[in-house]
Amino acid sequence: MNAMMAREIGEWTKEKLEILAEYLGGEEYGGGFAYATKRARGTYYIDAFAGPGKCRVRDTGEEVDGSPLIALKVKPPFAKYFFFDSDPEAVKALRYLITQDMLDMLSRVTIIAGDCNDRIGEALAQVPQTAPCFAFLDPEGAELHWDTIVRIAQHKRPNRIEVLVLFPYDGLVRLMPRDPSKLVHAHIIDRVMPDPEEWRRIYEARIKGVLSAREARRAFADMYRNGLLSLGYQYVPPLRVVKGPRGPLYFLAFATDHHVGLKIMYDVFNKLRETISQLYLFERSYEDEY
Ligand SMILES: C[S@@+](CC[C@H](N)C(=O)[O-])C[C@H]1O[C@@H](n2cnc3c(N)ncnc32)[C@H](O)[C@@H]1O
To answer: Which residue from 10, 43, 229, 285 has the highest number of Cβ atoms inside 10 Å of its Cβ?
Structure first.
């Protein structure tokens, strides 16, 4: 990948980016986090899996902004941005894009080339206790350790850092074979899940046929939501499922201590539910999210 690289995405990935853009708000979207916090002395954005900045939709070639560019375009801007990526090429591409197109934002940006799980403290150390802060945690698979979420959630109180987290349900279930003697990735799943006993309970119930695939999916989502609640967050709405052409792919989990944050996110979910569901050829029911 080079400085002009774009991340290849499926059409469904646009849903996540749209939710992020709508939630952060700013001029183009009106309202959102940026508007709600505009009187704060400074606001902070952490993107633990930032990517190269640009995405290209696989089937159509359409180019869309990735999460860091979405956040950089929010008005009023965040005081500081922390972008992590473990892929040096993605880091290079992101830095190039910002330098080329958004030079005025560069002084607000810290790009950390490395594993966010190891280095999240470098960003947290710069987030003041009183400042509103939003973290987007967007792993591809099992790269986001639950401990990292714990550290983010414990950094400040009473208003914890708001998080929008991708819980890569489909990828994790693929690591759970029907034959439990073939379960070789338990240590990886342990790192990612909030509760090592609970995921095993769900897994066992699923392979014994006590839970259907759908019930197991719901149980995993509830487990993740309960994990966020156990960190002290006041509001964790039911996780939103994102589907690809072959079915549910991942969940988006949102956690906040602020009722305004919760309201904005519900508005975003409601606003997007019609338009996004039309992207898919199969029926989708919001009430029946997961
Ligand atoms: C799903 S992509 C992120 C996409 C990005 N948020 C966007 O909107 O375009 C995941 C990114 O995380 C990076 N990554 C994987 N493991 C990581 C880790 N442990 N720490 C930081 N970045 C990581 C990958 O190189 C990849 O660019």
So the answer is: 43
Architecture of domain 7-168+236-277: 3-Layer(aba) Sandwich (3.40)
Look up the pTM and report it: 0.94
Distance (Å) from CA 140 to ligand 1 centroid: 6
Rounded Cα distance, 80 and 75, in Å: 13
Atom 18 of ligand 1, residue of closest alpha carbon: 115
* Domain segments of the chain as ranges: 7-168+236-277
Is residue 66 in contact with ligand 1, taking CB distance under 6 Å? yes
Give residue-wise pLDDT tens across range 235-281: 999 998 888 888 888 999 999 999 999 999 998 988 887 666 544 43
Judge residue 173's burial from the number of C-beta atoms within 10 Å of its C-beta, 0-12 exposed, 13-18 middle, 19 or more buried.
middle
53 C-beta closer than 6 A to ligand 1:
no
